[in-house]
Amino acid sequence: MGEQLAKWQSCFYCAGNNWFADMKRRMIYGVVMVVLALNLAFGAKVYFATAEAAEKDSPYQNLELFSYVMEKVRKDYVDGTNLTYQDLVYGALKGMVGTLDPHSEFLDPEKHNELKSDTQGQFGGLGIVIQLRDGFITVVTPIDDTPGFRAGILSGDRLLKIDGQSADKFSVEDAVKMLRGEPGTEVSVTVQRPSSGETKEHKLTRAVIKVDMAKDINGKKEFPLSEDKIGYVRLTQFGERTSDELEAALKKLKARGMEALILDLRGNPGGLLDQAVEVCEKFLPRGQLVVSTEGRNVGKSTVRNVTGRSGEYRNLPMVVLVNVGSASASEIVAGCLQDCAALGKCKAIVIGEKTFGKGSVQEIMPLEGGAALRLTTSKYYTPSHKVIHEHGITPDISVSMTDEEEEFARLRVTPGGIESLDEKVRDRVLNARDPQLDRAMDVLKGIKLFTERAPEVDSPKARSGKVAAAK
Fold this sequence. Notes:
By secondary structure, the protein is α+β, with helices and mostly antiparallel strands. It contains 13 helices and 19 strands. The longest helix has 55 residues, at 2-56.
């Protein structure tokens, strides 16, 4: 009986163990099946999402969509009688590239030619600087020895008509577009002189107008020295002749005994990278890093060092003036000289306000038919690898200006700017302060004074006096 009971107990335990083992296996299988099902569901979701994303990024389907919309617009748009495929494609390209960043742009042939004219520093026109004043397109100044100058057009004259079209609704850009053109072509302008009320029509022949890249403190190219032998050069932009014009200005100032320099980059929107590098080379030793660029494409990453004859003015105490209008190539120059001064490679001090922060590289790619693509391909970095884009260059000495001070300072350096004002405003402009320029002069005067006294402090007589005093 005892043996039989033991067998029953043994069978009971075995059956229990088997039941528990079976349940455990079923639970494990269940968990595995759930995991597999989840993986399958998730994988399917990822697959379909990837497939959907691939479909959205398919060039063929999207080009098909583009073609369909373009055809519908050309056929059914109510005012599309004269629409051409080129009109639609150009418009689409402008929209597409314009969504990338503020500096990338599709340039139609006309705009491409305007860009080339600006960087080359010359264009076909009449040689009159204009702005909108009191609702009129007004002449700021006629440039010397140009068609407008020779016709007797003066600062303050108002343009009433251009080629017979009333200019009262024109923007400055509209007027500039009509005044510029191929050298040798004619344009008529109707001009009113407010001082006398006289109205006169001129029929003028456009000529090649050269824009000065380097100007003196009076907006001219005479480059006088201050009483303290401090020179001043303002670079208006970085075009093809900027480095050459700066070199000519520096030679004039050096011949007159220049002992310090103010390089004014305020309001300079930038321009050509090569010119920024060449400007820096005048103040730096050979081999010094000027700027580096880094892009998504490794082939777009570059390093620009000082080469050739360089560093003639590296020991010249100088101030670089900047403000929020200093951008791109101006920031490269300011950032490079600031970094190099910290390393003892030059004697530059940056004064003014934080710069604009446009430190990206736009490559101009000519296209068929005269159009071009201006595309951001990389970003600029200073020698110490500070990024310029969206950060700007922070001055060594910050000096702010009011809007009125900035406007008056701009008028003083614009040729004809003072002459175009009435007498009361003219006196205010002439007597207004330029806090940034004043601070630059004070800093350079202090450096000059310290430099002159340093030899006296370190002379044999001074040293013997120090020894006697020590005894």
